[in-house]
Design brief:
- This protein has 18 helices and no strands.
- With 419 residues, it is mainly alpha-helical.
- It has 2 domains: 182 residues, MFS general substrate transporter like domains (Growth Hormone, Chain: A); 217 residues, Up-down Bundle (Growth Hormone, Chain: A).
- The relative contact order is 0.13.
């Protein structure tokens, strides 16, 4: 029971992180009025969030290995609360951007810290499913931003809505401080201070493990498409290029969340029971993404609604698919450097998403703005990422398997010699 209480408390902190991550997205029009910002400036908030989140992953992983989950979850909640209360009270655009960066920093340390709790508190056979459930349940934060937060925003205004979110974050911080413990044996104690050279050597060692890179390319190839779709270009594509109403586009994003939840449960069970087939599951998910996008983009005109539904469902499976990358990191890294490895894995999809978002924006501008033909060309940027990711998976998978066999043979030899 204690393990479930600790995981649930960490999960609440992650739900708040997703809530904080998505509040600005649902309040975009209000933000435009409050900060006198046009569409390009508003998109800066999204890009800034991704840049800070991705850039902070390796430092967050190093801090996680040094100080443990409890310290980082509490710190992350405090940073996000500080950023949200600043957004609540300011009408200065530069200050709002700075506050958004602080929110992104707090968000960056939270997810991997909650994931780190799972292998410490649960038996190995449950870890894959609980890893999936962590990612899945965290998406309830998006529901909170879309329903109660938006309702408060509409009825009570900007400041009240953002202060309410700040209060929720403060609650998560207090509960994490009171209830979360790093391991059953007590808290993680800080190791000796590392020099800059020592830190870089540690990062290099973790990255050179084939399992870490396998997780990185897994996260890259599965997660970026749905992230780009949900965070920036999905709604404009559905409404302008495909001719759907805003209501219909919102309904498809709801379908995306349901599809991700359903796929996550199934994938968690499968990866737990068939751990040696994890990379095949990942390759199938990437192949399905490539196939459905090829079908949609090959059409000379707008796609029928049923095909767009299939598109959204298929790319949404990439969200839980990316969680397999963290399972690779856990399998091929010792506990002492697991945080660093998970941070590296988490960079993969977000770096790819950032590059695709920026590249698509440049292509859309070059082709005269939002149109069916412009989007049709812009979405093809994804194929470059898929090619890189699949190549990386195939190469690192072979190296990881050889490393595992060598370690098993070494273990057997040591056992034989000891007997």
């Amino acid at each position: 029971m204690r393990a479930w209480i600790i995981w649930s408390t960490g999960l609440l902190a992650y739900i708040v992180a997703v809530l904080d991550r998505t509040t600005l997205g649902v309040s975009g029009l209000d933000a435009a009025d409050r900060f006198s910002a046009g569409p390009s400036v508003l998109s800066t908030f999204v890009v800034l969030q991704v840049v800070v989140y991705a850039g902070a992953q390796v430092p967050a992983g190093l801090l996680l290995d040094r100080y443990g989950s409890r310290v980082l979850i509490v710190t992350g909640a405090a940073l996000m609360a500080a950023g949200q209360v600043t957004l609540a009270l300011t009408d200065s655009l530069p200050l709002a951007l700075g506050a958004r960066a602080i929110v992104g920093l707090g968000d960056a340390v939270t997810f991997i810290s909650v994931l780190r709790l799972v292998p410490h508190w649960f038996p190995p056979r449950r870890v894959p499913l609980l890893t999936q459930l962590t990612g899945i349940c965290g998406q309830f934060g998006q529901v909170l931003s879309a329903i109660p937060f938006l309702a408060i925003l509409a009825s009570a205004g900007w400041a009240t809505a953002y202060v309410s979110v700040t209060a929720f974050g403060a609650l998560a911080m207090v509960l994490a401080f009171a209830l979360v413990r790093d391991t059953p044996r007590g808290r993680v104690r800080a190791t000796e201070t590392l020099t800059v050279r020592g830190t870089l050597a540690s990062v290099k060692t973790v990255w050179l493990r084939p399992g870490t890179r396998l997780g990185f390319f897994t996260h890259m190839g599965t997660q970026f498409s749905v992230t780009v779709f949900a965070l920036m270009w999905g709604v404009p594509y559905l409404t302008v290029a495909q001719g759907l109403s805003t209501h219909a586009a919102g309904a498809l994003l709801t379908v995306s969340v349901v599809a991700a939840i359903s796929a996550g449960v199934v994938l968690g069970i499968l990866t737990g029971r068939l751990p040696h087939r994890r990379s095949w599951f990942v390759l199938i998910i990437i192949a399905s993404n490539v196939l459905i996008w090829t079908v949609v983009l090959a059409l000379p005109d707008r796609a029928p609604l049923w095909l767009l539904v299939v598109l959204v469902v298929v790319i949404s499976v990439g969200g839980p698919g990316s969680m397999v990358g963290f399972d690779f990191a856990r399998t091929f890294n010792p506990s002492a450097t697991l945080g660093t490895a998970q941070g590296m894995v988490n960079m993969g999809g977000f770096l790819a998403a950032l590059l695709v978002m920026q590249s698509m924006g440049a292509i859309l501008d070059a082709r005269g703005g939002y149109s069916f033909d412009a989007f049709r060309v812009a979405w093809t940027v994804q194929y470059v990422v898929w090619a890189v990711a699949v190549t990386g998976i195939l190469i690192t998978r072979g190296k990881a398997r050889r490393q595992m066999r060598a370690e098993q043979e070494r273990s057997l030899l040591e056992t034989f010699e000891a007997s």
